[in-house]
Amino acid sequence: MDYEILGVGYASHRLPDPRIAQRLHAALAGTGAVLNVGAGTGSYEPAGRCVVALEPSWRMLQQRGAGAAPVVQGAAEELPFADGRFAVAMAVLTIHHWRDWRRGLAEMQRVAARQVLLTWDPAHAGFWLVDEYFPELRVYDRRIFPSIDVLCSELGGAEVHEVPIPHDCRDGFLGAYWRRPAAYLDPEVRRSISSFARIPDSRAGLLRLQQDLDNGAWHRRHGPLLACEALDLGYRLVVRR
Ligand SMILES: C[S@@+](CC[C@H](N)C(=O)[O-])C[C@H]1O[C@@H](n2cnc3c(N)ncnc32)[C@H](O)[C@@H]1O
Hints:
Helices cover 35% and strands 17% of the residues. By secondary structure, it is α/β, with parallel strands linked by helices. The strands form 2 sheets. It has a 7-stranded mixed beta sheet, sandwiched between helices. The site of S-adenosylmethionine (SAM) has 22 residues, from loops.
């Protein structure tokens, strides 16, 4: 996926969510340097640690804040670091974009003693947006996200933790607006969600969503969701200690 195009405006809609950050930081806890692979604009980089970021896209590099960690331009598949240079390597919602995720994972294992990944489980049942409006997304996402079992076996064993998505999640990835359906009608919101860039024409799905919101059909089907604080949408923290 081309983040030179997709990354426009990323920093405005993909802010780190504090509850997800808390989980990630608990998994990263310890001493020693942290490598953030596919770091983007710097979300979830832990404060108070020595962090080095790695990111291939200029567009994303330009959006890193003044206080963000020092960054090296490069790709996960060829990490320009010595063996064992880091205590832990993190990769947040990025491995599905890599040309060769197995190679990237092997590189993370070469340069760091531990690995922490946030990814999505393609075996998860999905949610209303995909099921009812954009079923083609299921096909694309199942193709690019590695299965959690395979990921764990490539890592030589790992812990897997559910990451329920809060109803007001600040990080605008695909599942973030599960309780705010009208948000998906906003082109700016969709532009920061890479899955939408894979759909050749999203107009029919968007029109149906708009109609269902206008005529109350969405609320009749999904009203109970509005009482939920957080939902498991298949996001998983994979931790190799
Ligand atoms: C959805 S963004 C996630 C960025 C950041 N980790 C975050 O949580 O906001 C995916 C990132 O993966 C990067 N990426 C794509 N291919 C990559 C590769 N081969 N190696 C490392 N990063 C890559 C993209 O440039 C983009 O910044």
